[in-house]
Write a structure and sequence with these properties.
The chain is of the alpha/beta class. The chain folds into two domains: 332 residues, Glycogen Phosphorylase B (Rossmann fold), CATH 3.40.50; 261 residues, Rossmann fold. It is 48% helix and 15% strand. The strands form six sheets. Strands 1, 4, 7, 8, 11, 12, 13, 14, 18 and 19 form a ten-stranded mixed beta sheet that branches. Strands 22-21-20-23-24-25 form a six-stranded parallel beta sheet, sandwiched between helices. Strands 15-17-16 form a three-stranded antiparallel beta sheet. α1 packs across α2. The longest helix is centred in the N-terminal third of the chain and has 30 residues. It starts with 5 loop residues before the first helix and ends in a 9-residue tail after the last helix. Bound molecules: ligand 26Q. Pfam families: Phosphorylase. InterPro entries: Glycg_phsphrylas, Glyco_trans_35, Pyridoxal_P_attach_site. Keywords: Carbohydrate metabolism, Glycosyltransferase, Pyridoxal phosphate, Transferase. This is Alpha-1,4 glucan phosphorylase.
Length: 811
């Protein structure tokens, strides 16, 4: 938006307010002020949105559809203002009428339709696609209830349902005229007409999929793309589905409830698969609606269906949307009358797949009976895909039944979604170098030998617009003042900042900005969690989902050890530290919940012990979410990335922290490896087992946590402290954590890495004392973070997988 000035904006805003609320601005409350600001900005966005859609229709550019069960967008107002290029104008205009823009921005409910990394990645990708002029669409589910709100009560996590739509959502546009029907259950009638088999679906349960579109604003480039989320509704009575329910009142209500449950709630489990029928229903629901609407749109422009794969690409975010493969086949075969081989060519050319995890417990394998029963026609198609594919395997590996069985799509009475995704797509990628190598050499080895060309790496990224420009305006200003603003469009240019790191004035500025952000964070912690912290202490932060493999427990044990040391030796000299945790546990994940309770009890004990609480404090910030992350990350000195090596596919918060000038303490896992390669060993602190050592233990055994427990008095003491009542009046409280580490032999090598982790933390202490050196390290991290912009990642997807034309019209 070019023509906007302060005066125009102010006038428009005052008018909008009056029009919406029928009172004068000064009489309105904050919520009303937010509502009218958001509506006004939405109106501006809508104009560009229309233009973009017109342009796409005219040019017929290849469209990318990013299919994902999760989109973790967070708040949209600030982002939209920033990307429209009117955030400053808006801020000044509001200041004129005594309104603080940030205050209004903070009223917006997070759109939390995702669990964590995978969902946030999808959101960053949408932002980058729009900003790089790529015709990219999101496709997902409009959950009525997003990721739950977390309250901490008596140290325990309590889940409160997320009711994000209760005040309405100005960003979405319901499009009832674009609804699709999705069919569940029933039977398939096969008939032969003119030598052609016909498949008719009868007695199915119809579900109306209604799309809600949200604009995705590109950065100052006059592009607004679309995120389309589907909501499940009962089909109206006029819909003729033969004998279905007609006239039966109770059945009709049952039907309505059953339908509406589909888009009711986001499953709050990440990295853990449970064969829930409703989850499968969710998956087919949005995938079927999405594919149908893509084809309807394509045909509206009168194009030859056999050219479909030239005009669109579908990307599936993990295996969750894998049913896009048989669904596209179904439409091509049954509705468009395309022959199998052609349909298969179109489908595999169109589809590409990203794997986000190697945790065995996260692999989706659906029971055949459930699958068949819910999706009878789709099952037939999957069977046929499997039959043809197994025929090929038989030719390739004659007589090797073991291998063929292992690699099959259907086997052991399960449909293996990862296998279907690999076979039915032309590209399979991991999300960081190590992760991709492990897919190729271990997890998906057989498939890599079969299809070596399908496999490729796309290291994750984050949008620097939200995670630097918007979340850290002070740092952004310093960078602009030194190296200019080319880094905004070319984040790799952040490298130029390194030249300024010998300038003491710049380093001092960096220090001041960090201090400022720490003060803001300290205030938030005081307000939200009622704990006051020392902004001269090191802010040492671990925020992410609570999970055994991410090893929050390792962090806990070293704090417990440090506490012991400070008590034993009151003169023990350390730089004061504040240990900050945040993150949600899956509601059914006992160990993770127990970990949260442990952190809170350690906090309680330490923060109330006047012998140490000048030196250390522990905080668990409740309800970690995107909007909180934006406030926490700029205030962090130390970024904890301490997963058991090989377990974290990539990690993305690691990138956000470095971009905001934190120093990382990390294992050589996921993208930490690439971060280290960027900043060199001097500017990151690495510890712990490497990948080969971990894999060797898993393969050959030989790890005995009890031996470490018995040989290291520090470890013995902190482990015993878990069950001796020190941190809870109920001695048994943390028994499960203890058992895991000792009785069950510590699957994630916490005790093994303990000593080297402590040394890493000692190193941080030493480094931090040399202020100049420390600030330089922070600066190097910022300067080398450009490569982790999702713009780089998306460019790689666009050119390497989707075949989109990448055009930089705004160069
Ligand atoms: C599957 C089946 C049934 C119910 C839930 C699920 C499910 C839901 C969410 C499985 C996995 C997830 C989320 C996984 C995830 O967030 N993975 C993370 O993806 C990031 C982006 O690539 C990586 O950076 C992280 O390393 C990875 O853990």
């Amino acid at each position: 938006m070019h023509e906007m000035d302060k005066k125009t904006f102010k006038k428009a805003y005052v008018n909008k307010f009056l029009e919406m609320h029928g009172i004068e601005l000064k009489e309105g409350n904050k919520q009303q002020k937010y509502d009218s600001l958001a509506s006004l900005v939405r109106d501006y966005v809508t104009r560009t949105w229309l233009k973009t859609n017109k342009k796409y229709n005219k040019t017929g550019e290849k469209q990318v559809y990013y299919f994902s069960m999760e989109f973790l967008l967070g708040r949209l107002l600030g982002d939209a203002l920033l990307n429209m290029g009117i955030r400053d104008v808006c801020k000044e205009a509001l200041a004129d009428v005594n309104i603080k823009l940030e205050e209004l921005e903070n009223l917006e409910q997070d759109q939390a339709l995702g669990n964590g990394g995978l969902g946030r990645l999808a959101a960053c990708f949408l932002d980058s696609m729009a900003s790089l002029n790529i015709p990219g669409n999101g496709c997902g589910i409009r959950y009525k209830h997003g990721f739950f709100e977390q309250k901490i009560i008596d140290g325990k996590q309590v889940e409160v349902s997320d009711d994000w739509l209760k005040e309405g959502n100005v960003w979405e546009k319901r499009k009832p005229e674009k609804a699709e029907i999705v069919k569940f259950g029933g039977e398939i009638k096969v008939s032969e007409i003119n030598g052609h088999l016909n498949f008719t679906h009868i007695n199915f349960e119809p579900v109306l999929a209604v799309p809600y579109d949200t604009p995705i604003v590109g950065y100052e480039n006059e592009v607004v793309n679309t995120l389309r989320l589907w909501s499940a509704e009962a089909v109206s009575n006029e819909f003729d589905f033969s004998s279905f329910n007609r006239g039966d009142f109770l059945k009709a209500i049952e039907y309505k409830n059953s339908v509406e449950s589909i888009s009711q709630v986001l499953y709050p489990e990440d990295s853990f698969y449970e064969g829930k029928r409703l989850r499968l229903k969710q998956q087919y629901f949005f995938v079927s609606a999405g594919v149908q609407s893509i084809i309807r749109h394509f045909k509206k422009h009168g194009k030859d269906i056999e050219l479909l794969d030239e005009k669109m690409a579908i990307h599936i975010n993990d295996t969750h949307p894998t049913l896009a493969i048989p669904e596209l086949m179904r439409i091509l075969l049954d509705e468009e009358g395309v022959e199998w081989d052609t349909a298969w060519r179109i489908t595999t050319n169109a589809i590409s797949y990203t794997n986000h995890t190697i945790l065995a417990e996260a692999l989706e394998k659906w029971p055949v009976d459930m699958f068949k029963n819910l999706l009878p026609r789709i099952y037939m198609i999957v069977e046929e895909i499997n039959r043809r594919y197994c025929d090929e395997l038989c030719v390739k590996y004659p007589g090797n039944w073991d291998k063929i069985n292992r690699m099959s799509i259907i086997g052991d009475n399960k449909v293996k979604m990862a296998h279907l995704a690999i076979v039915g797509s032309h590209s399979v990628n991991g999300v960081a170098k190590l992760h991709t190598e492990m897919l190729k050499k271990k997890e998906m080895k057989d498939f890599y030998y079969l299809y070596p060309n399908k496999f490729n790496n796309k290291t994750n990224g984050i949008t620097h617009r939200r995670w630097l420009l918007k979340s850290n305006p002070e740092l952004t200003k310093l960078i602009k003042d030194t190296i200019g603003d080319s880094f905004i469009r070319h984040p790799i240019d952040l490298k130029n900042f390194e030249r300024y790191l010998n300038d003491d004035v710049v380093l001092e500025q960096l220090g001041k900005i960090k201090k400022f952000n720490k003060e803001k964070l300290a205030n938030i912690i005081l307000n939200n969690d009622n704990i006051s912290i020392d902004t001269n202490s090191i802010f040492d932060v671990q925020v992410k989902r609570i999970h055994a493999y991410k090893r929050q427990i390792l962090n806990c044990l070293r704090i417990m050890d440090l506490y012991n040391k400070l008590i034993d030796n009151p003169g023990f000299d350390i730089v004061p530290r504040t240990f900050i945790f945040g993150g949600k546990a899956a509601p059914g994940y006992y160990l993770a919940k127990n970990t949260i309770e442990l952190i809170n009890n350690i906090a309680n004990k330490i923060n109330n012990d006047c012998r140490v609480n000048e030196k250390i404090k522990v905080v668990f910030i409740q309800n970690y979410r995107v909007s909180l992350a934006e406030q926490i990350i700029p205030g962090a000195d130390v970024s904890e990335q301490i997963s058991t090596t090989t377990k974290e596919a990539s990690g993305t918060s690691n990138m956000k922290f470095m971009m905001n000038g934190a120093v990382t303490v990390a294992t050589l896992d996921g993208a930490n490896i690439e971060i280290k390669d960027e900043v060199t060993d001097d500017n990151i602190v690495i510890f712990g087992l490497n990948a080969d050592e971990v894999l060797n233990y898993y393969q050959n055994g030989g790890y005995k946590s009890i031996d470490i427990y018995n040989s290291d008095v520090r470890i013995k003491r902190v482990i015993d402290d878990l069950v001796n009542g020190k941190y809870h009046s109920d001695k048994e409280k943390f028994r499960s954590l203890y058992e895991n580490l000792i009785t069950y032999n510590d699957e994630f090598f916490v005790l093994q890495d303990f000593d080297s982790y402590l040394k890493a933390q000692d190193k941080i202490d030493t480094l931090y004392r040399d202020t100049n050196k420390w600030q330089k390290m922070c600066g190097v991290n910022i300067a080398h973070s450009g490569i982790f912009s999702s713009d780089r990642t998306i460019e790689e997807y666009a050119t390497g997988i989707w075949g989109s034309e990448v055009i930089y019209k705004n160069l």
